[in-house]
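ingest -> validate -> predict -> emit
validate: passed (alphabet ok, no gaps, 148 aa)
predict: started
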Amino acid sequence: MERSRFGIINSHFSPQSSVMASEKEAALAADPSDSPTIFDKIIDKEIPSKVVFEDDKVLAFRDIAPQAPKHIIIIPKVKDGLTRLAKAEERHCEILGRLLYTAKLVAKQEGLEDGFRIVINDGPTACQSVYHLHIHLIGGRQMNWPPG
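emit:
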C-alpha cells in the first residue's frame, strides 16, 4: 500500500520508525515549496514542543526523534523564503548568523562545552524532510567522522 505524504512525514517524527528508512522516505515525499510546514505549527503553538530557547527571531526545541542525548532543532520564526539553505540570499545573512549564534547559546545552556555538531540538511538527497530552514544541534556523545 502506498503511504501518504502526511503518513511518511508523521512516521519521521515517530520514535518507533526505522530512522534511516523513514528519513529517506520523508525527504523524498516532502514538498519543497514555501507552503506551511510542521514548524509553522510549532511556532504558532498549534503543535506542542519542548522549547529550550526563544526570542523574537528564533525558536529552538528538542527533536522528538533525537540522534544523540542532546538534539535540538533551531529555526527562524519567519521563513521569508528560506525553505532551504540553497535558497538563501544576501538579505538572509542576518538571520543565518542569528541561527548559528543561537546554536552556540543553546549548546552552552545544554552543557555541551566539550563539543557539538551543527547539521543543515539541504534538499532531498541530504534527507531534508521539512522545507523550513533549520539547524540540528547535536551533542552529548562522541561523534564519528565522516558523518552520513
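The CA atoms of residues 104 and 132 lie 20 Å apart.
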